[in-house]
Amino acid sequence: MRIALLAHCRHPIAPPFAGGLEALSWHLAEGLTARGHEVVLFASGDSDRRLSLDPVIPVHQEAVFPGLEHTGDAGLKAHVDAGYAAALGRIAAGGFDVLHNNSLSRLALDGARRGGVPTLTSLHVPPYDALRWFVHASPAPTHRITATSRAHLAAWWPEGAPPEAEVLANGIDPAAWPFSPRGDGGAVWAGRLAPEKGAHRAIAAARRAGIPLTLFGPVEDGGYWRSAVAPLLGGPIRHGGHLAGAALAAELGRASCFLSTPCWDEPFGLSALEAMACGLPVAGFARGAVPEVVGEAGCLVPPGEDEGEAALAQAIGGALAIPRTVPRARVLRLFTRDRWLDRCEALYARVRAGAGPALAAAV
């Protein structure tokens, strides 16, 4: 198939990844190409040039409009909208069999802009007002929608999802996150250093538990970093930097447990999955999709404020008692990249079938 992948442009689609959405977009392009599909990635122009890239905007938006995501800034909105409008025009005229939309742009939900190209839109964020109406108005035979978990799907459609919407769980390549049979007794946390990811709460819980903690990830919100995280570093609590996949996998494998501390309804939780593949049980907050991802591979507690951090400190002990083979086995059973790509291909076939018998026969 000739497949257009439309990405979000806040960060480059290139390692080291700014977050899970960038990692998934890259692995989708790389994985589908390896399966023999002709894939064009529509993303910022400073994304990975090893992929077949068609720039939506010349460089990622944070390089030009730093810190303005979700602020309603008119300049950013006009800049990004112009890029997506032009990209959708190229997709409509580009002879693509299917479009996989991971952009979070409302424009990509407009069937007229897509020019009739069968489309799968994957949602990666909790529902918010600027996008909600467009998502709800868009399901059609040639437009299917996925959420990353049952909790995520229910958040978008509390009264029940339409038949064109379903769960597409994320997946990782277990070979890229090798199993380590033992840890050093410490904990790790990984993710974007932004308020909704809750690194400050992981620090508080680790201090209560008397366990060393290393944070990994990019500083996305400078104000949050300076006020809520940096002052808490020191001694057994440190920031290990923003590492690419292999280096991060090695660091995760050295630890004994992973802390998951979302302060929002986490749509999925890719960092926890990567740590689980390395053999780390999870201590975390039972919020959003975290219970679906972690399952028997962790010890989860309610996310209340001070009492939540005290409970999380106790949960660390429970997580450390879980054999490291348990989280690895859960990833291999439910969350591999091959399983995820299989589901993507099946969904492409279904959305193409919605375009009519002639197109379905060509799948």
Automatic annotation (TrEMBL):
The cross-references to Pfam families, in alphabetical order and at most eight, read: Glyco_trans_1_4, Glyco_transf_4
The signal peptide stretch is none
Coiled-coil ranges per UniProt: none
Q: Which domain of life is it from?
A: Bacteria
UniProt-listed InterPro entries: Glyco_trans_4-like_N
Domain Glycosyltransferase subfamily 4-like N-terminal, by residue range, is 19-175
The record's section on PANTHER family has: BLL5217 PROTEIN (PTHR12526:SF595), GLYCOSYLTRANSFERASE (PTHR12526)
Protein name, as recorded: Glycosyltransferase involved in cell wall biosynthesis
Tell me which species this is from.
Methylobacterium aerolatum
